[in-house]
Amino acid sequence: MIDLLRAFFVVLEEGSLNRAATRLHVSQPSLSRQMQALEHEIGGPLLERQASGVKPTALGQATVACMKPVLERYESELAELRHQARGQRSELRIGYIGSAAQFYLNPALAELRKRHPEVRVKLLDQAPGEQLHALKKGEIDLALIGQEGGAMAGEYYTKKLATLGVCVVLPADHVLAGRRELSPADLKKEVFIGAPEKDVPGRNRWIVRICRAGGFKPKFIADAESIGEAFSMIASEGAVTLLPDYFAQSPPPGVALVPLIDKAATWDLLLLWQRGKASVVVKAMAEILGKVGARNSSPEKER
């Protein structure tokens, strides 16, 4: 069917079975049989024979409108598969947590463009849970994710890009907001904002683990659907949460971010990709992100 459609479009472009047969390097009778086979497949006449050549019938015009995009998509996907078979990709799809883009993804993309200017990059700002789902379905090639991806290390290739410190996010007018640093024990009397398990798997368990190092179990009053919502809830509800320390470089209005000092208080930035033969560009991006991560990692937190 694909070959018949290709031949049909050549016939329309040439406006003549003779010229189309010459272009396709086949005989005119052979091309005529192909057109008859396509008409039989679709169920009606596609070409109107005239003295000056051939023109599409109404059904032929409908076939062009319906099938040309399908054929173009087929050709594009086939070319992409052939690139992959050679260990190449013309497109790189990256899922990422938006908060990591400024410090990790953006510098890496600049370097990738220098090495592989021909590669188109598709970026998807996704929650960790969305990234894991997209990676499993083959909808993204790389997942730039927090330590939530660690639970999937057995299923995917996993590269730790950085081990970062942790900061406490508090209302700007909180009594602890002016401190230079805090310990987990300082947060015993606080209530916490968490994250939905489906969006950020393991985030609340991570907060619980750090707080238990301070001798208490945190009380969660709500789960925020996004970082922005978490900041708003902290400012309005007088609650706190824990985040990677790179957030402290650009705190939003209404909240304060104070370093949390404890050997158990670390946060890992991970890169995940499918097992099997990785494309050249996936390997290149993993290498570049590793170098960027090493520059931005907190040395005192490395294990």
Put the structure in a nutshell.
The chain has 303 residues and is an alpha/beta fold.
SSE topology sketch:
Layout (H helix, E strand, L loop, with lengths): L1 H13 L2 H8 L3 H15 L4 E4 L2 E4 L1 H28 L5 E6 L4 H15 L4 E6 L2 H9 L5 E5 L9 E9 L1 E6 L19 E4 L8 H10 L6 E5 L3 H11 L3 E4 L10 E6 L6 E8 L5 H17 L7
Parallel strand pairs: 3-4, 3-5, 8-9
Antiparallel strand pairs: 1-2, 5-12, 6-12, 7-10, 7-11
Structural write-up:
The strands form 4 sheets. The protein has a 5-stranded mixed beta sheet, sandwiched between helices. Strands 10-7-11 form a 3-stranded antiparallel beta sheet. A two-stranded antiparallel ribbon has the order 1-2. The longest helix has 28 residues. The chain is α/β, with parallel strands linked by helices. The C terminus is likely disordered. The protein has 9 helices and 12 strands. It folds into 3 domains: 84 residues, Orthogonal Bundle (Arc Repressor Mutant, subunit A), CATH 1.10.10.10; 107 residues, 3-Layer(aba) Sandwich (D-Maltodextrin-Binding Protein, domain 2), CATH 3.40.190.10; 95 residues, 3-Layer(aba) Sandwich (D-Maltodextrin-Binding Protein, domain 2). Helix 5 crosses helix 9. The chain is elongated, with a radius of gyration of 28 Å. The termini are far apart. Helix 7 links the parallel strand 8 and strand 9.
